[in-house]
Design a protein that fits this description.
heterotrimer; A mainly alpha (385); B mainly alpha (137); C alpha+beta (264); B: 137 residues; mainly alpha; 6 helices; C: 264 residues; alpha+beta; Alpha-Beta Plaits; two-stranded antiparallel ribbon
Chain lengths: 385, 137, 264
């Protein structure tokens, strides 16, 4: 099937070449970081995780959202999604790959990464995260590939795949839950120390991931002869609607607990993010933009006549995606580290090399996504067009 | 699989290609069989000469010093055990900086010669003093 | 058929490796390894080593009259451990350093604090917690609580630089080597190893000195401000001080059980 990814239009080649260039540039900057150290990033002893780990966290969510297609199709026999589950699975594959790359570029001693396997430590959540992420990557690659191959050859997929498909459903939930546990089990970080962090992660993931999938479906329909389907896109839109509402609801629950209880250790982080603390608040505009985008998305998604208008739907999905991306990809990590445990407000902003490396990782993910989607779409074209 | 039937064409070319690849990939091995570089001569410092014997026999140290250092490092860092009693009953302070490199203070003529020859590049000296007389490399 | 071919390839591969590596091994090792009857070497603790169930420290802040009283102990520690002086503040490496009360004890801070406390600087360092969150989160056991005496130790050889422990430590006691620290060590102590870039470091309660039977460098340099001893020995100096004075510890509500006590 891989040969489908090699033959394509000039635009396709151009796009892939552009991605390869970005990968090359990102890799160059990574070599610089590899040789001189993480000091070339904006990270500090106070904000010791930054853009890399934030992107990792956000993308774990995007990866987990494949379950929103797999679950209705395989558990509830919702046939319509059968047409596009492959897109969700391949999106998961590329997202998890990016996650793993973001972890690697964040390591101070990347050549020792396999120490995690050499000295397995089950009491560390990172150990479990390593297991669930790699497992999820493998599951989706195998399931996606085998189901697509069977579909192409007009046969039923092999029966040994069925248990793997069922396994992938709780597994998807686990990857984002475990990722939330990385943060919410730390006693000294009030911003993350909340049981609602994992539910918040999942709700924002199930909004952002399907929103991205809708955008990808609309894009696929425009550039290929394969139509993912009106019903499919509308069902996804409903999922996005409920997920983004839940996400805002969970957020407001957190806000109530934190501000009604008035516990400073929990409050100060929210203050820093939304109104500033000790005169510092570089993230204020981002956080309010995120809030406004999420509320706007709810307004655009809830009435069905809005949602059924594809232009409005597109705008709403972009709003959901950017809103949740700011929330997790910018606010979540900085917000947890500022103020620091000694109550200093030392802010963080990514450096230029850090951004270039981030873009390089994203380009790698999009390259993989393009290859996989090209294969899937070409085969679907042969079948349905 | 529409292209399957083509698989058996160009059989000779494929086999020749594999053979050439194997020969190239195995270059270090057959090159070594034909001709191996002469073993390096290591230089002992006066202090090392005066000590006559290392923590273990010369033969053991030549082949197994890395194993010994690995055991030492785990023992010192992780088990808080810093005294080494060798098979002859002599006690040593398990310290790369203060025991090994104290005698073998000539990294370039001692450590590097064999490491270069064997094409290994341990990074011990990134942190452990390579030359107690000098400063940082 | 298939399996025998695979076996053949396996054997061929191993043979090629052996034949290739043989001359190199032969020339390095002129004579073969150990004699079979040699006794096994013994690894043991130094006889003069100081031992405890859980090392602890008491900081008598009443004795800190000015910055001058405590400056020597920071210097002693950082000098002896080759702690670099990083040029960029956000990359700072700190093992023991001064903090004002409201930073050291943010949860005990009050607006109307006594003038004296307000102006005292408190030495802060790794608390060598009895229940350390940093140890819990480390994915490689590169940081661990030493069973023999409760010191929270860093194994720089094993650390992968994930910085999970920096996120977990509620005391900011851990530093990460963002750049190569070696160029920034003013005066090198040849007896103690440096660190490499990309690993985490922190106070080690002077395990290298305890093994030699001497107290930590900061304690020695503090002229009685710091006292060091076994928390579980009722006769130890620290226990006497804790019994006779009201002491506080940093952020005890987090359940970490810090082993550094402050008399205020």
């Amino acid at each position: 099937m891989l040969e489908k990814a090699i033959k394509g239009s000039k635009v396709y080649y151009g796009w892939m070449l552009a991605l390869l260039t970005l990968i090359g540039v990102g890799f160059g900057f990574y070599l610089w970081q590899f040789n001189s150290g993480l000091g070339i990033t904006g990270l500090s002893r106070d904000v010791s995780w930054g853009f890399y780990i934030a992107q990792f966290t956000f993308l774990v969510g995007v990866a987990a959202s494949a379950v929103m297609l797999v679950l209705p199709y395989y558990l509830h026999d919702y046939k319509a999604f059968g047409r596009i589950t492959i897109l969700g699975e391949f999106l998961a594959v590329s997202s998890v790959t990016m996650c793993l790359l973001f972890i690697i570029v964040d390591l101070g001693q990347p050549t020792r990464a396999l120490n995690v396997l050499l000295y397995p430590t089950p009491r560390s959540v990172l150990f479990w995260d390593m297991i669930v992420l790699n497992g999820y990557l493998l599951l989706n690659l195998v399931i996606g590939w085998k189901v697509l191959e069977a579909e192409r050859n007009n046969v039923h997929y092999p029966m040994w795949l069925k248990p793997l498909i069922y396994l992938s459903i709780p597994w998807a939930v686990s990857i984002h839950t475990v990722t939330a546990f990385l943060y919410c089990g730390l006693p000294g970080r009030g911003f993350w120390l909340t049981a609602i962090l994992a539910p918040r992660f999942l709700s924002s993931a199930f909004a952002a991931g399907p929103a991205l999938l809708i955008l990808l479906c609309l894009f696929v329909r425009r550039i290929s002869k394969f139509d993912p389907g009106w019903e499919q896109i509308q069902s996804l839109a409903k999922i996005v609607t409920y997920a983004i509402i839940l996400n805002v609801f969970f957020f407001l629950c957190e806000i109530f607990v934190v501000f009604y209880s008035q516990l400073p250790e929990h409050m100060d982080h929210f203050k820093y993010l939304f109104v500033g603390l000790q005169g510092k608040g570089s993230l204020i505009p981002f956080m309010w933009t995120s809030m406004i985008l999420m509320v706007l998305a709810i307004i655009l998604l809830v009435p069905s006549q809005f949602r059924q208008n594809e232009t409005v739907l597109t705008i709403a999905c972009i709003a959901v995606f950017i809103g949740t991306w700011i929330d997790k990809g910018i606010g979540l990590i900085s917000g947890g580290f500022v103020p620091n445990p000694l109550h200093y407000v030392n802010e963080y902003a990514p450096s230029f090399p850090e951004l270039m490396i981030t873009i390089g990782v994203y380009a790698t993910g999009f390259f993989i996504l393009s290859v996989l989607f090209k294969i899937a779409v070409t085969i679907k074209e042969e079948l349905y067009a | 699989m529409p292209n399957n039937s083509k698989g058996m064409y160009n059989k000779n070319l494929v086999i020749a290609g594999i053979v050439i690849f194997v020969i190239l990939a195995a270059f270090p091995f057959w090159f070594n069989v034909v001709k191996s570089a002469p073993a390096p001569e290591v230089v002992l410092t006066e202090k090392a000469k005066a000590a006559k014997e290392c923590v273990r026999s010369k033969e053991y140290m030549t082949t197994d010093h890395m194993v010994l250092l690995d055991v030492w490092r785990d023992s010192v860092v992780r088990d808080a055990k810093r005294t080494y009693v060798n098979p002859k009953g002599v006690e040593f302070n398990m310290s790369l900086s203060n025991t090994c490199l104290d005698c073998h203070s000539n990294k370039t003529e001692f450590c590097d010669r064999c490491h270069d020859y064997a094409s290994v590049s341990p990074y011990c000296w990134d942190c452990h003093i390579d030359n107690p007389q000098g400063g940082i490399e | 058929m298939k399996s025998s071919r695979r076996n053949f390839l396996k054997i061929a591969g191993i043979t090629a490796l052996g034949v290739g590596a043989r001359p190199a091994i032969d020339t390095i090792a002129a004579v073969g390894g150990r004699g079979p009857t040699e006794p096994e070497p013994i690894l043991k603790q130094n006889e003069k080593a100081l031992t405890a169930k859980q090392w602890a420290m008491v900081v008598d802040t009443r004795k800190i009259k000015s910055e001058k009283d405590v400056a020597p102990l920071y210097e002693a520690c950082h000098k002896i451990h080759n702690v670099p002086d990083m040029p960029i503040k956000r990359h700072e490496i700190k093992w023991i350093w001064p903090e004002q009360f409201h930073h050291a004890f943010p949860d005990l801070h009050s607006e109307f604090l006594s003038e004296k406390i307000h102006h005292t600087t408190f030495p802060v360092l790794c608390n060598h917690c009895e229940n350390p969150p940093c140890v819990r989160v480390c994915p490689t056991k590169a940081t661990f609580k030493r069973e023999s005496d409760g010191v929270v130790v860093m194994d720089y050889h094993r650390c992968i630089g994930c910085r999970f422990c920096l996120a977990a430590c509620p005391y900011g006691a851990r530093s990460f080597n963002f750049f190569d620290p070696r160029e920034h060590i003013k005066e090198i102590n040849l007896k103690f190893a440096r660190r490499t870039k990309g690993v985490v470091e922190k106070c080690n309660f002077c395990v290298e000195r305890l093994a030699e039977g001497i107290e930590p460098a900061c304690v020695e340099a503090s002229k009685g401000i710091l006292t060091f001893g076994d928390l579980y020995d009722p006769e130890s100096e620290v226990r006497k001080l804790i019994a006779e004075n009201f002491t506080i510890r940093r952020k005890i509500h987090l359940g970490t059980s810090p082993a550094v006590y402050y008399i205020v």
